[in-house]
Amino acid sequence: MSELIEKLASAHDLSDEELLEFLMQPQPEQELFAAADAVRRENYGDAVYLRGLIEFTNYCKNDCYYCGIRRSNTHAERYRLSPEQILDCCAEGYAMGYRTFVLQGGEDPYFTDERVCEIVSAIRAGYPDCRITLSIGEKTRESYQAYFEAGANRYLLRHETADPAHYRMLHPESLSLENRKRCLYDLRDIGYQVGSGFMIGSPYQKPEHILADVRFLQDLKPAMIGVGPFITHSETPFADFPSGELHFGLKIVAMLRLLFPKVLLPATTAFGTLHPQGRELALKAGGNVMMPNLSPRKVRPLYDLYENKVCVDEEAAQCRGCMEARVKSVGYRVEVSVGDSLVR
After folding, report:
1. Which of 13, 163, 299, 336 has its CA 20 to 30 Å from the CA of residue 83?
2. 3 lies in a domain?
3. Residue 199 DSSP SS3
4. Boundaries of domain holding 131
5. DSSP state of 313
6. Phi, psi (degrees; rounded to nearest 5) at 130
7. Looking at the domain assignment, is residue 13 inside a domain?
8. What is the pLDDT of residues 297-338, one digit of tens each?
9. Angle 13-15-19 (CA atoms, 0-180°, nearest 5)?
């Protein structure tokens, strides 16, 4: 085992210089992934937690340069699910065993705090034994507090990059890294189980940017870290940039498992889009969460953050069965309980 992998596997942090060396120099994949897998098994066993994903709106007021549902994409076919449709998704997911629902959408002004709270309250009333996760972007502290009091438990908000100059390259002037971090700290202080994370291989990304991501996450101490490769979308300013590279992305997943042994670490759909077994490979590199899609089949292709997204043509039950088969194929087992993070 290489010295840097051995040091990470022994629960030691790396210095900035060592971490940059790790990022820039090839590492023996088999050793790295085996070390990461050993750490996830020590903390979470062979469980892979399934979360029911509901992509309820693809309207977004923001214009992020990498995102397919950005405001300026006039070719996007927009949709919103009604509260009744969202609850139908929950009913279907609950019947299949899911005990966590993830409501994800663009920053859609139609979904006011009042509407969000009504939806969250209805889910909480119908499914008191479930966790409710929101992933709806930057809000005020007061808004986050209202959602929490309505019954939301978790919130996912990727910071995307912790380097201010790099952040400016990826986002319009209306968005700032300072506000994104404020949101994450507010969420943590309110009491949410917070998830953050970043793109791997995004335009202009350097190893120093990933170093900044790691240091920020060490300060935030999130319950979940969601990372995935950047994937090109033709209706964005980054249409001509190459997508991220699979093996470097897997290297980052393994690194994060070793640096953050107790976090929940998804094997994201973006990995499955890059490679037919991308999600399985991410599980073997230390991932332990997957998010089958509960959204109505007709709207799934419309939530196109990036192109060629996998699993948009399956019914929810098919998606559930496919996920279970994929998990078993690499030596793990599906767990549909609430699956709280071990981070405290």
Report:
1. 336
2. no
3. strand
4. 18-335
5. S
6. -110, 160
7. no
8. 999 999 999 988 877 777 767 778 888 999 999 999 999 899
9. 85
